[in-house]
């Protein structure tokens, strides 16, 4: 826990020290939601859309759909950004010093991702909660489902961040993370469009992304009034995928560290 706390605090001080960051966090949720909502709002007038996607015919539920998608994407993409910043520590030699210490490697990458998660998602979560209150769009089976929703986003996101950070042991070039996990992630995971509207091969790609399962649980619990029993399959899938990601992170860290010891090139490509 000491390693987790120190790593999260280090990232917070490095990235969150400017007041301009707070200003951007106030504007970003509004711009993101407005862009997503007004892009699809014209579809609500399309004849027959209620039969294919009933939610699109209800402006409040459509906005809530986009709000949950944007919230989930914020959680997961903040970890992509965390991995990007983590690569700077490799270039400057900080990561090499950390690996010379007795600190637990897995807790280092989890702490790095958790720090990004907290500092990037808290304001967006508050914004979405306030919007749900104003829209009266929430349909929850019982109050305990809020805890289920929180864990269904938090646990896979932390595992996802640990896995992404562990991959950078092999290369300090993190630009590929943005290329592969920005637009493809929101498109294939159902952030702005329902997954059933995607081609079969793209649905298959989205099914292996943890964000897809998290959004299914979030929307099912908050918008459709589903309980734990109704979402048991999705929750089990998220638990298995999170375990696979954490095991993958451990394997990547061990293999990457062994390679670095053999070559002496932790700071190089």
Reconstruct the topology from this structure:
Elements: H1 2-15, H2 19-40, H3 49-52, H4 59-92, H5 94-100, H6 105-135, H7 144-167, H8 175-181, H9 183-188, H10 200-207, H11 210-222, H12 232-263
Helix pairs in contact: 1-6, 2-4, 4-6, 4-7, 4-8, 4-11, 6-7, 7-11, 7-12, 11-12
The biggest sheet amounts to: none
What's the assembly state of these chains?
single chain
Query: Which structural class should the secondary elements be placed in?
Result: mainly alpha
Classify the beta-strand content into a percent band: under 5%
Brief rundown of the structure:
By secondary structure, the chain is mainly α. Helix content is 75%, strand content 0%.
Explain this structure:
The longest helix has 34 residues, at 59-92. This protein has helices at 2-15, 19-40, 49-52, 59-92, 94-100, 105-135, 144-167, 175-181, 183-188, 200-207, 210-222, 232-263. Helices cover 75% and strands 0% of the residues. With 269 residues, the chain is an all-alpha fold. α4 packs parallel to α7, α4 (59-92) runs antiparallel to α11 and α7 packs parallel to α12 (232-263). The chain is globular.
């Amino acid at each position: 826990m000491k390693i987790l706390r120190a790593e999260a605090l280090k990232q917070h001080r490095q990235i969150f020290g400017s007041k301009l960051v707070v200003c951007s966090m106030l504007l970003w949720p509004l711009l993101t939601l407005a862009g997503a909502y007004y892009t699809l709002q014209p579809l609500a007038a399309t004849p027959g859309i209620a039969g294919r996607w009933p939610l699109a015919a209800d402006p409040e539920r459509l906005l809530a759909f986009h709000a949950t998608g944007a919230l989930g994407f914020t959680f997961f993409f903040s970890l992509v950004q965390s991995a990007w910043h983590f690569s700077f520590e490799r270039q400057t030699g900080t990561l090499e010093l950390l690996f010379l210490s007795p600190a637990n490697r897995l807790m280092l990458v989890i702490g790095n991702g958790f720090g990004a998660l907290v500092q990037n998602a808290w304001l967006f979560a508050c914004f979405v909660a306030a919007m749900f209150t104003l829209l009266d769009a929430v349909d929850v089976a019982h109050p305990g489902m809020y805890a289920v929703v929180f864990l269904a986003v938090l646990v896979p996101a932390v595992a996802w961040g640990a896995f992404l950070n562990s991959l950078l042991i092999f290369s300090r070039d993190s630009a590929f993370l943005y290329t592969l996990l920005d637009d493809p992630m929101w498109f294939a995971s159902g952030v702005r469009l329902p997954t059933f509207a995607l081609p079969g091969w793209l649905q298959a790609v989205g099914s292996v992304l943890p964000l897809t399962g998290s959004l299914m649980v979030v929307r099912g619990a908050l918008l459709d009034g589903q309980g734990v029993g109704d979402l048991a399959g999705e929750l089990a899938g998220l638990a298995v995928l999170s375990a696979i990601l954490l095991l993958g992170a451990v394997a990547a860290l061990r293999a990457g560290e062994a390679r670095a010891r053999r070559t002496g090139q932790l700071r190089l490509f």
